[in-house]
Amino acid sequence: MWKLNDEQIKRIQTYHEDFSNNEIARDMGINRKTVAKYRAPVQQEASDVLSGKEEAMLFRKEAEKLNQLSKQEKNKLSLLEHYSDKDIKEMLDYIAHNKKKEIDEVLWEPWHLRFALIWDTHIGAKECALDELHKFYDEAKSEWVEAFVHCGDLVDGCWVYKGQQFEQSEKGFDEQVDKVVKDYPNVWVPTYFIGGNHDESYLKSSWADITRMIDGLRDDLINLWYYDATLNLNWITIQLQHWGGGNSYSKDYKLQRYIDSIPAWEEPDIFGLGHYHQAIHSLHRWIHGFMPWAFLKKNLLAKRFRFPNVIGWWLIDITKDEHGNKKLTATFLNL
């Protein structure tokens, strides 16, 4: 019979009663009689054994005191501070029904990333699809995304086109900052964003940087500066660009043209191009290029540039091996 430490005993007791002793023994690499010995006194669901946030935080403090956790494991546990008791319970139920190796492959392994790609939210515009944006964030979180990536035009700006002020619910720098801080979705998952031409309008007109202001007021909104940025998450490289002008005769022309301008030694795994309110996924030069639609309903700007204004977002799951070979799944969801 195996001799187990307290942590292993506690893990046995978190398994759901539907799991057999053989299944638990296989999962943990121990003898089934050992499982039966330690499991018999306690037949509870995982959510009863670890009842939520308080228990998880207590375990974290004890483990850190004994210095039993690696830096990576400490980082994982620190994420629990940002989740509600309901979220913790859902995580524990998920863990109880899945092997640790499978969970790590989905959530934590380097060279793997699951994220949501959006842009052109135009906060402050009357036709901003804010309700749909909240629905999108809730849905993306339920898909276990590790990050949101926003390719510009977070706010609607000012004086970008004639008559714009008549199409805005929040006018000016202060009102649009307050609207983002108060009403932009916050699901405790970081949103990395670049500034687009609408965001830059305040910088041009009054030397006021609205992206930096928002970054300072919301911990989950992380500014990557204007128009162009390269983001590295889990060793996956994402290049973001917010271009200008109207749509081309071919919807993916500007996407492929920009990818052609990237030097071979700077090639990203994923390239996102904003501004055009089009939904495209193109593989060009072995770079996955994306253009998603906007969270903006039909207004004068959309009519002027003939934007279709279908609201939607990309859910991207990518894995890369040590040789650079990529396996990518991209799902477009429209609301």
Topology:
Blueprint (H helix, E strand, L loop, with lengths): L5 H8 L7 H8 L3 H8 L6 H4 L3 H14 L4 H8 L6 H12 L3 H8 L4 E7 L11 H13 L4 E4 L22 H11 L7 E5 L1 H10 L3 H8 L3 E6 L1 E6 L2 E7 L10 H8 L9 E5 L5 E5 L2 E5 L8 H6 L6 E9 L5 E9 L1
Parallel strand pairs: 1-2, 2-3, 3-4, 6-7, 7-9
Antiparallel strand pairs: 1-10, 5-6, 8-9, 10-11
Helix pairs in contact: 2-3, 10-12
Characterization of the model:
With 335 residues, this protein is an alpha/beta fold. It has 2 domains: 98 residues, no CATH class; 223 residues, Metallo-dependent phosphatases (Purple Acid Phosphatase, chain A, domain 2, 4-Layer Sandwich). A 6-stranded mixed β-sheet has the order 4-3-2-1-10-11. The chain has a 5-stranded mixed β-sheet with strand order 5-6-7-9-8, covered by helices on one side. It is 38% helix and 20% strand. The chain starts with 5 loop residues before the first helix and ends with a strand. 31% of the residues are buried. The chain is built from 14 helices and 11 strands.
What labels describe this entry?
alpha/beta; 335 residues; 2 domains; five-stranded mixed beta sheet; elongated; 11 strands; Purple Acid Phosphatase, chain A, domain 2; six-stranded mixed beta sheet; 14 helices
